[in-house]
């Protein structure tokens, strides 16, 4: 068993600029599962397509190019080159108003997922870290808030699954996040490790409802939350065998399980990125995100491999994780299929802009008074 190869397949890495460096291409050559793009990697549709093509060409096998393109304040690709989506909270409000122009909220969500996927595909991007399936139960949540569809778990489930199905129907993998639920926290896991006292009964009534729907829909992947659920474990969900047993055994999710970025302070300042990578795979994650630091990306691969070679990471667990990541890589389009010269025309076409603008106009006409306890006011 080649532990280094299996370990590399469990890592998704970030790069620093508009084009890969020689050192970053060397990392790609180790066999990482994918690369995640940020605003720092984005200039224009043609440039992103050329970047995707160059990264894929350097890989020995399939390589997933991934991004956060949720809508609202979390979308790395923005106007004027790409179509900007409203926040998912606004989509929830459209649904609550009965839909628009003869379309239900569910139909609108699926169409938006398809729209996003077409523009991502044109740029060589295979994998979107969306939809957010967190339930917006805490008006003081500093990190989720308007990224959530609703405070109603059933609405979050229905709209989130529709958006994800739209993505996957157009050949882009979806990622339901953040399991088992980040919506009720009052702290941001980018900065600290949030804690929640919710027990399993509460989780089944609220937080887990959308993830059960994701499991039944057979979505491609789910992302874990760096949140400690103190009623049943001292470990954050990303590193918790109990939380990930809940995902597999009780929720019944069969797709890939990806960690949120291990360089977020919730993990980096407590367990450390390298130890966190091994612990996450051991707990039941199949892939880990290491989004910023080249040295840590290499060290994460080496730490996972070392854990399987000498313990305590079970070799069967690493093999299972790598197999699930390999299955997720079915979404990875080959370098030769990307057409950088055609990317600009496929992104932000008039029909996409008209649809999104129509949503805003229709919602404004149907605007209802807001319950100040229901929504947290945030700026995009």
Structure at a glance:
By secondary structure, this protein is α/β, with parallel strands linked by helices. 44% of the residues lie in helices and 11% in strands.
How does this structure look, described?
This protein is α/β, with parallel strands linked by helices and 380 residues long. The chain has 15 helices and twelve strands. The protein has helices at 3-8, 22-29, 45-58, 88-96, 105-122, 153-169, 200-205, 209-217, 241-251, 265-268, 273-283, 294-310, 315-328, 340-346, 350-365; strands spanning 11-14, 34-37, 64-67, 69-71, 74-75, 127-128, 176-179, 195-196, 221-224, 228-229, 256-261, 287-290. The strands form three sheets. The chain has an eight-stranded parallel beta sheet with strand order 6-3-2-1-12-11-9-7. It has a two-stranded antiparallel ribbon with strand order 4-5. Helix 2 (22-29) links the parallel strand 1 and strand 2. The longest helix has 18 residues, at 105-122. It is globular and about 65 Å long.
